[in-house]
Design goal:
Elements: H1 2-22, H2 43-46, H3 57-66, E1 69-74, E2 77-82, H4 85-93, E3 99-101, H5 105-111, H6 121-135, H7 137-159, E4 164-165, H8 166-183, H9 194-203, H10 216-240, H11 249-258, H12 266-297, H13 299-314, H14 325-329, H15 332-345, E5 351-355, E6 359-361, E7 364-366, E8 371-374, H16 376-380, H17 422-439, E9 440-446, E10 449-452, E11 457-460, E12 463-468
Parallel strand pairs: 2-8
Antiparallel strand pairs: 1-2, 3-5, 4-12, 5-8, 6-7, 9-12, 10-11
């Protein structure tokens, strides 16, 4: 009899626990949705690969079933997913008041406990100002010639090769430029290649968080560990042999760490450096790769882009002079191409926040402590806002000037956490496209497919051959070997 009572108690307890899992407590009406399996939630479905260019199936299916705001559970955490432009805008505007930047424990483990996304208030604003000193408009004006020289150097080198891996080639170019500016990094001066550790990191960034040797997630953590060790050693060397004049971000960090009463710690500084290196090169190289693929598939857009940049050269008294800031700001169609590219690429699949207190939105209540994911792909591919949303159409941005996020465009975030590197990204893309279309032509050797993780897409297998404009293309013989495109996500 006792055994039956114990068994009944266990069954009732499990049943109640499962019921509470599927029906969380709330002082109001929760958004509709499913919490998935106990403990696991809907994590596996969320991380399923997506081969379409449309809204990820995980999001699209639930939008159709539940509406623009729905609940789910990811990695054991109750989450509200928002594809509603009005609610997204409200979330960004209430940063630090009703919502706070937040990322899952697995992301925190990847990017560091003291990463900039986990910092708030004065500390976040202080770090943001430090970054703006390096990547603000005044600094970018001085960097313009450096960016152009790097682009020209790489393009000349690539034109001598049979084919290039476009994503790999652009990532390498941008990483070298960014690392030089941030930490004066020269790969020839180190026995270990810093970027190779970031490559290992990227291969497991969007993967199921299982930290077991042999998994992508484990390789990701190991790549971060090696990269952080290199950055720590470089910072120690800079502190031991300081420069007379600050010339890179490490110099500013060293000076800040020496100030009495500073809130900056070495751990925060190193985590910040890691995030800056990752964000500035990986996201920009993805966007640039997508832009070239879109232009290759749209001759009319390529023609108009080329004409815009050739006009810049024609209006210049000396064509051998480099780009000026005025010329850069005049690239109206180029910025339309960039806006359309980042809208379609959806490089940031989700923006994470946490409700600081119980929040009412329309008829629904988001409980305090719940995570909220803003979903840019659902906004950027909304047919109610964008006609034929998955089509590349840079003309849709004609006459529109974007100086920040809007309800229907949030490729660079929004609110007080609007990406401080936005202008740096645009400078790199615009300057590279200028150098490419005025001096070179290219052809796709293999078109490749669009591969998507939860929201992030990139061309897989995209090979191109670059040729100087004044050369005659010679077809490759069958025994010449293509360099396959490898995407690092």
């Amino acid at each position: 009899m006792l055994h039956l009572c114990v068994l009944a108690f266990v069954i009732i307890s499990i049943t109640y626990w499962v019921y509470r899992w599927r029906n969380p407590k709330c002082d109001g009406i929760l958004p509709p949705g499913s919490m998935g399996l106990p403990l696991l939630g809907e994590t596996l479905q969320f991380f399923s690969p997506n081969t379409s260019s449309d809204i990820p199936p995980f999001i699209k299916e639930r939008m159709q079933r539940y509406g623009p705001v729905f609940r789910t559970n990811l990695v054991g955490r109750p989450v509200v997913v928002s594809t509603d432009p009005d609610f997204n805008y409200f979330i960004f505007q209430q940063e630090g008041n009703l919502f706070q930047s937040w990322y899952p424990d697995t992301f925190t483990e990847i990017f560091g406990q003291q990463n900039v996304g986990s910092l708030h208030g004065y500390m976040y604003k202080h770090l943001k100002n430090m970054v703006l000193n390096l990547f603000g408009p005044e600094s970018l004006k001085k960097m313009l010639s450096e960016v152009e020289q790097a682009a020209c150097k790489k393009l000349q080198l690539w034109s001598l090769q049979k084919t290039i891996e476009l994503k790999e080639a652009t990532a390498s170019m941008i990483f070298d430029l960014t690392a030089k500016k941030l930490i004066s990094y020269d790969p020839d001066s180190f026995s270990e290649n810093l970027r190779e550790n970031f490559v290992a990191f990227m291969q497991g960034l969007i993967s199921f968080p299982l930290n077991i040797p042999g998994t992508a997630y484990h390789r990701c953590l190991q790549g971060r560990k090696r990269a952080m060790k290199m950055l720590k050693n470089m910072l120690d060397e800079r502190r031991a042999t300081p420069r007379k004049r600050p010339s890179d971000f490490f110099d500013y960090v060293r000076e800040e760490l020496q100030k009495e009463g500073t809130l900056l710690t070495e751990a925060i500084a190193l985590d910040l450096m890691f995030v800056l290196l990752f964000a500035s090169y990986e996201t920009t190289s993805l966007a640039l790769t997508m832009a070239i693929k879109f232009l290759n598939d749209d001759p009319l857009a390529l023609k108009q882009l080329t004409e815009e940049h050739e006009t810049i050269l024609k209006n210049r008294e000396n064509v051998d002079l480099g780009l000026t800031w005025t010329e850069y700001k005049s690239m109206k169609f180029t910025f339309q191409v960039i806006n359309e590219t980042v809208r379609l690429a959806n490089i940031v699949p989700g923006i994470f926040r946490k409700a600081l207190r119980s929040i009412q939105f329309k008829e629904y209540t988001i409980p305090a402590g719940w995570a909220v994911i803003v979903c840019p792909p659902a906004v950027h591919l909304n047919p109610a806002k964008y006609e034929d949303p998955i089509a590349f159409n840079p003309w849709r941005w004609e006459g529109m000037e974007l100086n920040g996020a809007t309800k229907n465009f949030m490729a660079f975030g929004g609110g007080m956490r609007f990406c401080v590197g936005t202008e740096f990204t645009k400078v790199q893309m615009a300057v590279f496209l200028h150098s490419l279309v005025t001096k070179y032509r290219w052809q796709a050797i293999k078109g490749g497919n669009i591969v998507r993780t939860p929201g992030l897409q990139f061309p897989n297998g995209y090979h191109i051959q670059i040729m100087a404009k004044n050369t005659t293309h010679i077809s490759k013989s069958s025994d010449q070997k293509d360099i396959s495109f490898k995407a690092f996500l």
